[in-house]
Amino acid sequence: MPKLLCAASLILFALSLNCQIEAQSPIITDDSSPQYDLNVRLLPDAHRLEASGHVQLAATGTSRSSIKFVLSDLMHDFQVEVLTPSLSAGKARVEKSEAGIWEVFPPQPIPAGQSIRMRFSYSGGEGISTVFYLGAEGSFAGGLNTAWYPYPGTGKAQATGIIKFSVPEGYSLVATGTRRSTPGEMAQGKFRFEVSQPTFFGFAAGRYIVLSRQRGAIPVTAYFLRPRPDWTEKNLEVCAKILNLLTRDYGAYPYKEFAIVEVPSEQADKAGFSGASIDGFMLINNYNLENFTPAFFGHEMSHQWWGNLIKVKDQAGAYVIGESLSQYSSLRVVEILEGIGMAEQYRRTGYPKYSARQSAAGYFKEIVARGQDHRLSDLPGGSTSHLIANSKGFIVLDMLSRLIGRARFASILRDLIRRHKYQRIAWEQFLEAIKDGSHKDLSWFFEQWFERRGAPDYQITWERRGKRVQGFITQPAPYYRATLEVQLKGHNRSLLKTIEVNGERTSFNLAVPFKVDSVVLDPHYKVLRWTQEFHTQSNLPVSSKNAN
Fold it and tell me: Residue 156's pLDDT band (boundaries 50, 70, 90)?
């Protein structure tokens, strides 16, 4: 399967754009997000939408002669009228200042301390963009990835409000927020959603076949573009279990239901994703529906917390908090539902039918061997960073979880979400929360795993002396500190011991009550490290493997 970027990683491209805009525009106060009353008419056969509505923007401490809006280049005929304040009311002049950026000039500047209410209209959508397509095959739109509606270019694009959709009769529609339309309205193609918490708006529409599971705390519904006899309520049951596990670790799921929405694979491929998590639902292509895996669903569903409920202020740490944490969540789902053996395979060589590249093997072969490695702390936007986060990053977080303790690590993350949900956090806040919650000095772990490229290359040498096994573990610089398991094997017997490794050479002397025939270092691959297999695959000289 050609694994594409999941939509949460594409957040980073939008983040970099928003950061540029923020530097040029007044900053809206943090206590209020834009509020919309948005009307959208979808014309799938024409690959088009027509939209109009109102937006309320909070006051700022300075007067504004213009306001910048982000709106995709797929949209056109953008018109704006200022309704309030009355001093600035009237038809605004709209200019496209750069790609995807529109500047709105009110008849008179907006005074300091005054909120703004505007009426707007626009149309378009005839094309494919990141997580965006309109067509009879199935339509989808992720507001963070492609600005299909205009939002102010101030970094405060997460919004609340009412969204009303009109679609052809026979279509179903899933969107961000709580569904407020009646069955009669939906039968006529009228859908209304209330968004009460700040987020980016998204939707999907098509002539869906619906499979629903209403039992349990969180109803789960699947929307298919064609009959899928192999997809039964059993699959929905697994998704419900995944949601329960994620809720246990990260706190309450923020919506009343969860939806799995099929999208046309060809268009999704062109739109840059195989799965995308949007608040309250996920988009999924044909391959991942037909090859159902807890790993894929665990990853995408965890984005409801990491990437949706919690977002990142800037580039630093964004991939770790969005992608690596979702991949770590996927690993935990696999470990709990399918056992430690499958979790080990996931870490080492990848989960079957998910992505072999998203594993330690993928990291060493696809990233390090090609000279594309980078620190986890400040991964730049792009597909390479996405792979680093989902190959190295999730194993690093798994190691951190073991170091702190699974329950305490989950508690730290749960508390972080409780305090910062619907907000953007900084990388430093994330690290500080882990440090404070763990009650440990983790500076060494942060330095060697978040601030370095590469991974350790441990070698073990041993000999048997009576009922003891002696030896040492070596590694080239830069040195990594770790707790390593060693498995001592004899005839029909084995014993697992742990060794604290630090520095170039660590000696050990272990009592063993049987004759030892072999010693295996880190038998379950709990620490990201080079193995002989990875050496062979990478075909790199040893001196280049651990470069800072």
Answer: low
